[in-house]
Design a protein that fits this description.
globular, alpha+beta, six-stranded mixed β-sheet, 147 residues, 29% helix, single chain
């Protein structure tokens, strides 16, 4: 059985109106909610022109697999925080800038990016550390639906 944890995902960028049903299907497939009480994500929330915030509890492996896959294929920007599962994995933040591959960062239970001593040694310079933190703290734009 998969370890299950809480997840928050902030999603933004530009999406064509004809792709909205695919996004809604991904949200439903991952059982993501609009809030921690389980309020469903409605179409008006998606087209509101604000960063879309999705949450879930008891999410397998802490990944919104369908939403994240859709976002990557559509070139949307997102940042996901997942809590840790005792003995299996720690909290993390995953950031996708709209292109390339997602980047993974260790995080605290409060979604603060954490750098270990080995991370700092590997990065090697103050400038590289700051650049890594800047990527981890990517500002997520509003989700804009065009067309």
């Amino acid at each position: 059985m998969a370890d299950r944890v809480s997840v928050t995902l902030r999603l933004g960028g530009t999406l064509s109106a004809d792709r909205v049903p695919d996004l809604m299907a991904a949200i439903a497939a991952d059982d993501a909610g609009a809030d921690w009480e389980g309020e469903p994500v409605t179409l008006d929330r998606v087209v509101a022109g604000e960063t879309l915030v999705l949450v879930g509890t008891e999410v397998a492996w802490g990944i919104f697999e369908e939403i994240e896959g859709f976002a990557q294929r559509a070139g949307l920007v997102y940042a996901r925080w997942s809590g840790g599962a005792s003995g299996s994995f720690g909290p993390e933040r995953v950031v996708f800038s709209g292109a390339g591959a997602p980047e993974y960062f260790s995080a605290s239970d409060d979604d603060e990016v954490m750098l270990s001593a080995s991370d700092i040694r590997q990065l090697g310079s103050h400038a590289a550390i700051l650049a890594s933190l800047e990527r981890a703290e990517l500002a997520i734009p509003p989700l804009i639906v065009r067309g």
